């Protein structure tokens, strides 16, 4: 089944990217947890833009989430500011604040930690390719199955 990608777009706009964080606008969807997921995508986007190595990241832990009211209605715009607290060899940690269009705080996320993974210059561009991509080389002899060009490297920061 081919689902249109636009159906899952929640990051409406990236407004500011700085050395210590990112600010943007999300569009609320009716799916439970969608706004928190979108906030995490924006936070992760900062890492992809600003980290020089090991930019492939996945959310790992959150210390605390505080809600200050009901979930915004579907299609409402919500601003997010993510502040980077710590950048370590294998993790990035930050705090996020989500505000309604009225300026009222809807949620605060404290201590959101992402895990960093290695991605060399062969692997990193594949993340942004819409088509299927592979990193392979010809087999050792004629007619052999193609094999991987090599293992994905560990984070360079290890």
UniProtKB/TrEMBL annotation:
Superkingdom, natural source: Bacteria
Comp. bias (Low complexity): 134-150
InterPro entries found in the cross-reference section: HotDog_dom_sf (IPR029069), PKS_dehydratase_sf (IPR042104), PKS_DH_C (IPR049551)
Alphabetical list of Pfam families matching this protein: PS-DH (PF14765)
Occurrences of domain Polyketide synthase dehydratase (ranges): 34-121
Gene3D superfamilies linked to this entry: Polyketide synthase dehydratase (3.10.129.110)
Region (Disordered): 134-158
Protein name, as recorded: Polyketide synthase dehydratase domain-containing protein
The species this protein was found in: Streptomyces caledonius
């Amino acid at each position: 089944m081919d689902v249109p990608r636009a159906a899952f777009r929640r990051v409406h706009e990236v407004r500011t990217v700085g050395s210590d964080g990112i600010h943007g606008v999300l569009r609320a969807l009716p799916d439970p947890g969608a706004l928190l997921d979108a906030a995490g995508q924006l936070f992760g986007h900062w890492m992809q833009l600003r980290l020089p190595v090991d930019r492939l990241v996945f959310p790992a832990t959150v210390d605390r989430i505080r809600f200050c009211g009901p979930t915004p209605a579907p299609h409402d715009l919500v601003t997010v500011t993510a502040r980077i607290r710590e950048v370590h060899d294998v993790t990035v940690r930050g705090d996020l604040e989500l505000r309604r269009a009225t300026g009222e705080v809807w949620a605060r996320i404290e201590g959101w930690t992402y895990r960093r993974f290695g991605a060399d210059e062969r692997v990193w561009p594949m993340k942004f390719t819409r088509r299927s991509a592979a990193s392979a080389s010809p087999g050792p002899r004629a007619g052999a199955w193609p094999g991987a060009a090599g293992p994905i490297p560990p984070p360079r920061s290890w």
